[in-house]
Fold:
Amino acid sequence: MQKHLLLIIMFICFSCENQPELNGKWVILNITHKGRNIYPQTVSDKISVTYNVVGFESSEKINFKIIDSTIVFPGFKSNKIKAGFKNIKNRLSFKLVNDDVYKSKDYDFTKEVFLQDFELTNLSQKNIIELKSYSTFIRLINEKEIFDQRINKLFR
Structure:
C-alpha cells in the first residue's frame, strides 16, 4: 500500500507542469527576430496614462489576460494588436482576434514577430520567461515582480 501511495505522489509531482502565472503585464527585456535585436515602439493616436518603474520608463509590455485567453502586443511603429492565445504544455500559439482591424500594412511587421507558435521557458530567475519560435526570441519579466523588488528596496 505504501509503495502505491509513493508511486501516486511521484506521478503527481512529475506530471505537474512548472508553468509561470502568465496573467498580467510583462515588460519586454529584449527581442531577437531573424538574428537581429529589435524593440517595439507603439504608435497610437489615443492618449493613455501608464505608471512605470524607475529604469523601465520607456519599456513596452505584453499583457496576458487569462480570463478570456487574450493578449495585447505592442506595435512596431504601429498601434497595439490584440490576439487570442492557447497555452498547451509550455507551447503558446497566438492568433488575431479580429483580422479585419489589422489589415493595414502598418501591422505587418508586428504580426510577423508576434503571431507565431512559441515554446515557453520559465527561467530559474523569479518571474522571467522566454518565448522562442523558429524566428523570434523574446525575454520578459513580470511587471508585478519589478514593483515588488523596488518596494522591498525602499523598506530595507
Q: What stands out?
A: The chain is about 20% helix and 35% strand. Confidence is low (pLDDT under 50) at residues 10-17. The longest helix spans residues 2-15. The chain has one domain: 20-154.
